[in-house]
Amino acid sequence: MSLSTEIKESVNGVAGEEKEDNVQHIVDMVNLSDISSIKQSVSAIIRVINDPGSTVKELKEVIQLDPPLAAKVLKTANSAYYSRSFTRTFTDIEQAIIWIGTEIIKELALNQKVCEIFDRDERIEEYSRKTLWHHSVAVALTAKFIYRREYGLKGENAYAAGLLHDIGMIAEDQFLQDDFRTILQLSKTKSINITSAERETWGFDHAQVGEAITASWGLPEELNTAVGYHNNPLNSCFEFSKLVYTLYVSDYFCQNNGFGFGAVPDRDRALFNECLRLMDVKPHALEIILKNVKQEIKTMQNKGLL
Ligand SMILES: [Fe+2]
């Protein structure tokens, strides 16, 4: 019996425990597949990002643990964009970190690694992994800028949460492709968001799958919670609500401004406005952030990173 059929049968039974089993089943498949190849490096980079006492040496060690990643980071550091700025060639990761800056290198390494799982050309309706990658980068940048500009905080997990928030969708397009196609059609014809279409079909959604994946990789609880509640922010716990609301707002705002696939249903507007109110962020601030995001995306494209 296919995973899809098994899931449909158990959804018909509508038992909460069975839904959990289905999500766990998908996570097990993810962890046996190529998707989990990014696990070790991504969790090591996120650990360094969350450690205020981490050193250049530690960041270097994390990057060097993954030779293809190290090669990519060096290649980017030596690309026309950076070599023009520094008129030198980097042959050593530590040199590259010192010259380019730890913050930039951490994001660069995270981008390089996470984008590996979005590297598939196939389209399903308006969805493709490439479109999802562009959306995820825009969400990551928006979340980061909200933290820095609006809260005056570094937001250690904001960027990574943006990059990884839709990882559940990747698992679904890989292991439940026929159902996923139906869900995308359902969301379009009924003008509902993908999450609602997923819940109608399976009884769970990509946010729950995503949270189960990132939790199984041992990523920080704040990040996992944000991934898990990014479509259902008001139900999250208070402790991590800042990142959860920020992620929801960034996700909605990016989708509404052309960084996504499909339109955002009108009925989601009220939830977006409520989160903005709880965050005490003015819509005008988001417009300024959008300009920064577009600028940053242009820079990334010039660097050959997008
Ligand atoms: Fe999203």
| Bound heterogens, unique | fe (ii) ion
Number of strand elements? 2
Shape: globular
Distance between the termini: 39 Å
Mean pLDDT: 90
> What is the fourth-level CATH superfamily?
Hypothetical protein af1432
Category by helix and strand content: mainly alpha
Tally of contiguous helical segments: 18
What's the helical proportion of residues?
A: 55-70%
Q: What is the CATH class designation? A: Mainly Alpha
**Which CATH architecture would you pick?**
Orthogonal Bundle
Q: What fraction of the residues are assigned to beta strands by DSSP? A: under 5%
- Report the biggest beta sheet as strand number plus sense, adding barrel if it closes: 2 strands, antiparallel
Commentary on this structure:
By secondary structure, the chain is an all-alpha fold. The chain has a single domain, classed as Hypothetical protein af1432 (Orthogonal Bundle), CATH 1.10.3210.10. The protein is 70% helix and 1% strand. It contains 18 helices and 2 strands. A two-stranded antiparallel ribbon has the order 1-2. The radius of gyration is 19 Å and the shape is globular. Fe (ii) ion (FE2) binds next to helix 9. The site of fe (ii) ion has 5 residues, from helix 9.
